[in-house]
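REQUEST ID: PR-0412
SUBMITTED BY: lab tech R.K.
PRIORITY: routine
TASK: structure prediction, single protein chain
INPUT:
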Amino acid sequence: MPRIAYFGPSGTFTEMALAQLESAHTFDGPVERIAAPSQGATLEMVRDGVADGGVVPIESSVEGSISATLDALATGPRLQIVAETELDVAFTIVGRPGVEPAQVATIAAYPVAAAQVRLWLADRLPHARLYTSASNAAAAEDVVAGHADAAVSTTLAGERLGLTVLATGVADHDQAVTRFVLVTPPRQAPARTGADRTSLVVLELANEPGSLMRVFAEFASRGVDLTRIESRPTRTGMGTYRFYLDCVGHIDDTAVAEALKALHRTAGRIRYLGSWPAISPSGSPPPADGPAAAWLDDVKKGVNAS
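STATUS: complete
OUTPUT:
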């Protein structure tokens, strides 16, 4: 039975994402779930061999990329993304048994969650003081511990802890979605499906005019569609950044493979984060290589190919 770590504690959206991956038969059978206190701790369990894989959030349609996950993937021994899933995200406001909304003076929330219900809180609980929690489920635990009167959490966490539901379906934006990824030690990428996502990090880039543009050109010149371009500080000095890139396609697509090889030659240190089936494909697929490969093969064989 594989051991799969997840950003916990029990009752988080990440645990729900893990359950969704199980339902989709991502694993060969049942898994042992291991809660971890942070995204970084989840991935360290995989690196240390404590877990066979880890599930972490990587992108929110409302707040963008999850910086803690990106930073953890870029540092330490390389890990690889092999699968993803998406969850529609709406929150449940839970409180101490017997508490009424008008009595809520403090509300616990994970910062990413607080950002997604900011308008709702301002309208419904304008006088409540925000208490920062380590995760959505931890926010509910903070209510039990007496740190706050209520929490922005999940229904699952509230039920497990015996808390009162004050509101459900709470979200400032309709159709808010969070994407979660399954991360493992480096391995062969899942088979190409034709609707895939490839991700990498440019860890170091020469600080000279045009260096980033040359990275983009390696993809553009080969018809590979970049769907995410993001920078994060390296934390080694002011003005030093690493760049995260997602593109449409798979490492087994010739155009994607050629772009990765070119970057390895010219762009300094890069880290391949994986190629895997995309749940919600977007962008244009890389150009088919069949006709060009057949023409080149004929030329090599001396066939009179026009």
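NOTES: Residues 115 and 133 are 13 Å apart (CA to CA).
REVIEWED BY: pending
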